[in-house]
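User: I've been going back and forth on whether these two constructs are worth ordering. Before I decide, could you fold them both?

Assistant: Sure. I'll take them in the order you sent them. The first construct and its structure tokens:
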Amino acid sequence: MSRPEEIAPPEIFYNDQEARKYTASTRVQHIQAKMTLRALEILNLDPSIPQFILDIGCGSGLSGEILTEEGHIWIGMDISLDMLATALDRDVDGDLFLADMGSGVPFRAGTFDAAISISAIQWLCNADTNTNEPKVRLARFFNTLYGSLRRGAKFVGQFYPANEEQIVQITGAAKVAGFQCGVVIDDPESKKNKKHYLVLQAGASDRPLNLGNMDVETAVPKKEHKMSKKRLKKMETKKQYIKRKKVLMKRRGKRVANDSKFTGRSRRPHF
């Protein structure tokens, strides 16, 4: 099945028909509720105090309804006008804001006690136009998100990465913005039920993240960055270049001179 972000930009893909179809699905409602409750579990908020929460990519308000049921106050932002219109028709309790998260989180510094996002942030990795550079959009999103959270506040975003490179790309941008960063994976052995949760913290907090036996710094999968062949060639010395060419010629069946201590040596210029 094609991924929605590969078909069209979110503001186009989630038109009026798709928004209503998505919202009316009992399967989608169940999954959204389950993932929102899981995000709140990881956030580990103080249950005795209502929190002011930002719901990024709130859509038609399915995740916001769970926030309301849990006693929180929330604001939702989304790029799809039709999704927000559906949320208004459903009379959700949260305030709704039309905005593109790739253009930044448009709220004052230190506004929110926490933030969540369900099935949305993978869209930031998709370059649907020539002007939408994923690296720039990710940096803008995480930098402004960090600013909008009070110090010590947390963000949990459930997302569907297309591959390991996207996980590295997203977590790398979050770390550069200043977040403590990790990824929690539920049902890692299941292809169908596997869920990724990006977990961020903006500074120290008196209530640690609920990661079980995983530490926030080590929850993100480590991946070695391999240099491209082009970059490796630029970094090689003259001697390494000659040896590489010799190996290549041998593979092609050509006769080459044996290596010696003089191979690739620098010679004095002759005048």
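The second construct, handled the same way:
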Amino acid sequence: MPDKSAPIVIVHGAWVGAWRWREVADLLRDRGHRVFTPTLTGLGERSHLTSRDVNLAMHAQDIANLIKYEALENVLLVAHSYGGMPVTQALELIPEGVVTSLLYLDAFCPDDGECLNELTAFPAHLPEDPDDYLVLPPRLVLQGFNAHMTDEARTSYEDRRTPQSVFCFSDRTKLSGAREKIPQKTYVVATGYKNDTFIPVAERLRQDPAWRVDEMPFTHDLQHVAVEETADMIESALPAASQ
């Protein structure tokens, strides 16, 4: 039986923050779940903390520290988009047995030594100015990522996105197999847009019996276009109750 008391930690994607997951998080809380949505250092309301030190390792530490200091156990750890990179790295820092279920939602799922820039057709390169380390958020409407938005919603979205350190995208993972030890692992791919980045990930994981692979017929920003369905999918990945 799923553990309905299990804490849920949701990690957002690039250039945004916890604000992007407010509707899904609020719905899950209304359903009685404990939900944590950390904003990674240098982004969202923590954008004033950005520096050249912000990288993939720091974002992994953000996640591991939340779980440590909130003393969470039997955790469902959810990653969206870029969030799959620091979530995967964070598992190397979290004691074994604390995270018991993983859910990647249209997210990167790297192997050891990989960086995001190698896993996407839209790599985030260092700006031309050698003193600059920030990558501006791309306008994603042409890629179909947020084609579902109204003009008003898209303007609000673009106004709140923040530049992100290039080292989040260029730093390589250092993995020893902690992810493979997680008892429950689910990968969900969005099929409502031309998804050349994440469909191959889903197809690869379909060959691994340790993974459950599912689909959602929406665009990349599942948490915006399919709030209730995304909350349902998260609930479906809750870990089994501790014995």
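Notes on the second construct follow. The longest strand covers residues 99-105. Strands lie at 8-11, 35-36, 75-80, 99-105, 134-135, 164-165, 184-190, 211-216.
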